[in-house]
Design a protein that fits this description.
There is one protein chain. Helices cover 32% and strands 30% of the residues. It has 128 residues and is of the alpha+beta class. The chain has one domain (14-109): Alpha-Beta Plaits (2-Layer Sandwich). The strands form 2 sheets. A 4-stranded antiparallel beta sheet has the order 3-4-2-5. The chain has a two-stranded antiparallel ribbon with strand order 1-6. The radius of gyration is 16 Å and the shape is globular. This is DUF4188 domain-containing protein. InterPro entries: Dimeric_a/b-barrel (IPR011008), Monooxy_af470 (IPR025444). It comes from Stenomitos frigidus ULC18.
């Protein structure tokens, strides 16, 4: 089997950040809200200034995880302060027991490996 394998050329101090967030439905209201809004959340995040790519994965019927790639931590912070994110959080404010939410932010330490086309961090930095 033959395919192109490449790595990306990361700067010494990359500005880009990776944001991982997840939703776990804890009751019927959380389950319905999550599945009714999942595609809107993904679309709104992908359209935000500084967001380069969003990947969503289904962990199970009650859990979804999203990974988004941002040009900088400031772009991600601006997204948190924006109307789209506020709208996402309104359900949690009204129904605090219905969803378990978690998030983590990472900066890349080294290049990943990629085949065929740029994904994730390779969408931000040039090929080696």
């Amino acid at each position: 089997m033959s395919y192109n394998l490449y790595q990306i050329d990361l700067p010494e101090h990359p500005e880009a950040v990776i944001f991982v967030n997840g939703f776990v439905a804890r009751d019927r209201a959380g389950f319905l809200w999550m599945w009714q809004n999942l595609f809107w959340i993904r679309h709104t995040t992908a359209q935000a200034k500084g967001c380069v790519q969003v990947k969503a994965g289904i962990c199970g019927p009650r859990e979804v995880i999203m990974t988004s790639y941002w040009r900088s931590e400031n772009d991600l912070k601006d997204f948190f302060r924006g109307a789209g994110h506020r709208q996402m959080m309104q359900f949690t404010a009204k129904h605090p027991q219905s969803l378990c939410l978690y998030n983590e932010t990472y900066q890349p330490l080294r290049s990943g490996k990629y085949t065929h086309e740029p994904q994730g961090m390779a969408s931000l930095y040039a090929r080696v």
